[in-house]
UniProtKB/TrEMBL annotation:
Listed InterPro entries: GYD/TTHA1554
Taxonomic lineage: Archaea, Methanobacteriati, Methanobacteriota, Stenosarchaea group, Methanomicrobia
Species per Swiss-Prot/TrEMBL record: Candidatus Methanoperedens nitratireducens
Name of the protein this chain belongs to: GYD family protein
């Protein structure tokens, strides 16, 4: 499976939803799992962003489909990056 980092920022609508229902975070993680995206780790970020997620999916197509689904809801804006474990990178250079 491919790993990604997703950095997200809540929209005003997303902040209102989260205030009313903090468990919504876990609900969204379950919805992502149904789309084939596993949230491996999740952090609240103090600063310019609200959340940093380490996620995995089968490929770029799967993650793109999931991100578009999330964005279409209007509650977050994201930046998603493909990441490669350092050991894999080193091996690819040999």
């Amino acid at each position: 499976m491919a790993r990604f980092i997703m950095i997200s920022t809540l929209t005003d609508e997303g902040a209102r939803t989260l205030k009313k229902n903090p468990e919504r975070i876990r609900e969204v993680n379950s919805e992502l799992k149904e789309m084939g995206i596993n949230v491996l780790e999740q952090f609240v970020v103090l600063g310019n962003f609200d959340f940093l997620n380490i996620i995995e999916a089968d490929d770029n197509t799967a993650i793109t489909k999931g991100v578009v689904e999330l964005l279409s809801r209007g509650s977050i804006r994201t930046a998603t990056y493909r990441v490669i474990p350092v050991n894999d990178f080193i091996e690819s250079l040999k």
